[in-house]
Amino acid sequence: MAFGMFEVSIWAVLVSGVAYFAVGAVWYSVFAEAWMKGIGKSREQLQPKTSNYIVSLICEVVVMYFLAVFLTTL
Hints:
- This protein is an all-alpha fold.
- 70% of the residues lie in helices and 0% in strands.
- The chain has one domain (10-72).
């Protein structure tokens, strides 16, 4: 499927963006205690909002799109 002027599969971009998000979620859940200790915060001080996750997912999909565009132009 052509997306814009580049031959990029939108499904590949979406799947890779979601996979990137999932890897980040696993990473920060496995190393949550060390990460919070490193930034000097406690679990009570960090109250995640749903909007943070949505913005993060959108940004990761955008990164995957530009990576796909870059790789198709090589």
